[in-house]
Design brief:
Layout lengths: L1 H9 L2 H6 L2 E10 L11 H13 L4 E7 L2 E6 L2 H6 L1 H9 L4 E6 L4 E6 L4 E5 L6 E9 L2 E12 L2 E10 L18 E6 L3 E10 L16 E2 H20 L1
Parallel strand pairs: 6-12
Antiparallel strand pairs: 1-2, 1-11, 2-3, 3-4, 4-5, 5-6, 7-8, 8-9, 9-10, 10-11
Helix pairs in contact: 3-5
Length: 237
């Protein structure tokens, strides 16, 4: 596996001198759930079918240069004004705008609720495979990892390309793989690049957010747990 990683890292040496910035537009699809998940829940099944159709109207944009990246929903106001499209965005796992700094190895997440979360970029235990496929003009490699969720373990699949040698991707999937993620299959939704624009004439400048009143990931989780418990207690009164 170390030899495979070494070979992959060698591939983009030429590209590294050529690609310095770009914009990736992703579309999303809601992953199909087993029919057993909707047993006795016909209304939920119909809602999810409607959300799946609405998801085709939701796009995400990743803008990046050699040091920073910004990932957020495209045409945010239009998405927020549509109940189904907004629900599709939530299901996709997106929390807001993600700012990534590779030199600082951290992300700032500006949530749609106005909360600013600071999260370190940590090394993840990915299984890098030899399986490949083309996305657009780029040769992508398959990487997988197992993620534990309340309902059990789920396998996350990422298709990344060393030909764009920057460790960026959707949401918090950054700084983890030897190339940019062009497709990500998560728990509920799949992101896939539908437009790739590299080296634009106008420089891409990422404005790093002011680091004031940032919460850590653990603080954010504690606040969310407290809010959930408070609302639960109110319903009991």
């Amino acid at each position: 596996m170390k030899q495979l990683l070494y070979l992959i890292l060698l591939l983009p040496l030429i590209s590294l001198a050529q690609i310095h910035s770009g914009t990736i537009t992703y579309g999303i699809t809601v992953n199909k759930q087993e029919d057993s998940s909707y047993k006795g829940k016909q209304e939920l099944k119909e809602l999810m079918m409607s959300v799946s159709k609405a998801a085709t109207n939701v796009n995400y944009k990743l803008q990046f240069n050699s040091a920073y990246a910004q990932f957020n929903v495209d045409n945010k106001l239009a998405v927020k004004d549509s109940y189904l499209e907004n629900l599709a965005s939530i299901i996709s796992g997106n929390k807001g705008t993600y700012y990534t700094s590779l030199p600082q190895k951290k992300q700032i997440i500006n949530t749609d609720a106005g909360i600013h979360i600071e999260a370190p970029i940590e090394n993840e235990d990915w299984d890098l495979t030899k399986e490949t496929k083309k996305i657009g003009d780029f040769l992508c490699y398959k990487a997988t990892k197992v993620k534990t969720v309340p309902k059990g373990d789920v396998t996350v699949v990422a298709w990344y390309t060393p030909e764009i040698p920057f460790a960026y991707g959707p949401n918090n999937y950054a700084g983890q793989l030897p190339g940019l993620i062009l497709e990500l299959n998560g728990l509920m939704a799949t992101y896939k690049a539908k437009e790739i624009k590299l080296n634009p004439k106008k420089a891409i400048v990422i404005k790093w957010p002011k680091e004031k009143n940032n919460m850590s990931v653990s603080e954010y989780k504690k606040a969310g747990d407290k809010l959930y418990q408070d609302r639960k207690d109110e319903r009991k009164r």
